[in-house]
Sequence to fold (314 residues):
Amino acid sequence: MAERSALMEGTVVASHGRHCMVETPDGERRICHPRGKKSQSVVGDRVLWQAPPPGQGDEGTIEKVQPRRNLFYRQDEIRTKSFAANLDQVLILIAAEPVFSESQLARALIAAEAEGIQPIIGLNKSDLVEPFARAWERLVPYRHMGAGKHYGVLPLSLTLSSEVDRALLMEHLQGKTTLVLGPSGSGKSTLINLLVPGATVLTGEISQALNSGKHTTTSTHWYWMDKERTTALIDSPGFQEFGLHHIAPMQLAACMPDIAEHATHCKFYNCTHLHEPGCGVLDAVKLGPSAGGISPTRYKIYSDLFEELSHTRY
Fold:
């Protein structure tokens, strides 16, 4: 019986189905698969893997997924979709046109808050003056979230020659591992190629390696942005729906900083912020955002989500 090699450390840098690409500390990349029916790893996972015995191919085996610092994911009634693990931050890219969904944006921000991951919002297409002004105004609550907690909102006009925007983004990304999310039309592909020249070619090569020559557009990829390998960007497929069934209704307020700020003033410790007397959140909604209260749009997102999550618990 051939002797198996010792376990080695690695980071998952791409995945598709049960196969993934693992990168070693010295930069070598190897296709690996989990042993047996062990849980599937995701991009960003730190793993222990094993090379095959001599004469038994090139693919390694993932023996263990190390404990995760966090996991960014969404969950609906049917399935859970994991994006990436061990993140420092999530960059959510939206655009002035097409008009972005504030509900979708809020859901992604809530998922990040639930895992303790810092979110950044990028608003693209600042060259479209009037649409951008309208979009920028819609983001006022996110730029001034309250209690010292605010989301960085970056005005962008992304093109492949946009050195100003590249410098602005690098200020926020340097030395960190960042997941980039964005709906169709937000300019995510332009952003990735601006920050990682040649990313499209690299994606094609990895996809072919993982999927027997078929180009995979639904997989997630890790890119190093510097030779020292200290700054990483993770590109994930565009999302349309963002289920939050993994979050309990009573956890929701804590994941929305503007709601959480005023929830500390509620009369009852188990306040739902929907109808109770002496509710600090309801008082803040009456006060309005201009007086330091809560935006009616943000409160509607909260109340709609609370109802949705209350009816989908099992």
Summary: The domain at 8-65 is CATH 2.40.50.140 (OB fold (Dihydrolipoamide Acetyltransferase, E2P)). Confidence is low (pLDDT under 50) at residues 212-217.
